[in-house]
Inverse folding.
């Protein structure tokens, strides 16, 4: 069972870590604890499809507003 720890606002997998639930590497934990002082992070279930197919989103080209994920 894997999870992803990543910044709430991020791009290009910046500061994104995939870990086994309950088995976090102490180095990653220390890094995330330091980064948490600068920005918000979230934890999500790991999605194999993101690795296999990538993540596609819809954006309004006039406003730049996020319109949702493309499946």
């Amino acid at each position: 069972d894997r999870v992803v720890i990543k910044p709430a606002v991020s791009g290009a997998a910046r500061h994104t870590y995939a870990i086994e639930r309950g088995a976090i590497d102490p180095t990653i934990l220390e890094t995330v604890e330091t980064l948490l002082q600068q920005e918000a992070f979230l934890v999500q279930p790991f999605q194999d499809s993101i690795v296999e197919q990538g993540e596609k989103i819809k954006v309004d080209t006039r406003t730049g507003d996020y319109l949702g994920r493309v499946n």
Remarks:
- Residues 26-35 form the longest helix (10 residues).
- The mean pLDDT is 82.
- The longest strand covers residues 2-7.
